[in-house]
Input
Amino acid sequence: MASAFSDHYSAVADAYARFRPRYPPELFAWLATHSPGRGLAWDCATGNGQAATALVEHFERVVASDASAAQVARARRHSRCAPRVALAEASALPAAGADLVTVAQALHWFDLERFWPEVHRVLRPGGLVAVWCYQLFSSTPAVDRVIARFYHEVVGPYWPPERAILERGYGDVPFPFEELAAPPFAMAADWDLEHLLGYLGTWSATRRYQARHGADPREQIGAELSAAWGAVERRRLRWPLLVRAGRTSGASPALRSRRR
Output
């Protein structure tokens, strides 16, 4: 795991906020149901703030932190959501005050030997932590083939090494909590081709390719992707979410009873 903050997204914070898919409301309802309380949630590495602003529907207060000042400046705002610039491993939150800690599509960037103790410090006894990620979307077979070639062949060599952790769905990441089985969740969106190309432009590998070659790698698949897309304006895209959730020790008897 990286021991220092690697800023892959500040330069495209606006595009990230515009083009990234949205997490399903059912995920946040499930998290709230399994949290020991609804007081404070900490959304770590909040990015464009979409998870944080969904959490305010269920929690009295949300702290949305990110190491990127550009991301925090462009994140969505809500009266009960407090943005802050902070490393994941040093949140400056008070001890034992949070009911929930969430990390959306960012755990692979963290120094886990420092982050997990910070989570244990911040969560109250029995508090819940949930991390999730998504990989390639699925659409039509023709579109999927073009995107797979772009992902693996065109920009494949330019993915940061941490990407391999995400590709394994965080399944082999040490997770020092009492783990809960999460139900299946997925994101879905109806996008036009322009939006899809904008999304591909937010990939860190796309931007690393551009920096290396001074050219946009999306141009290599433009005609092929347009042909695969066809005459329809919008297509449905779907990303399964890979969720790991667990809680700290010390759950109250009432909470243990509710979970049975």
Observations:
- The longest strand covers residues 234-247.
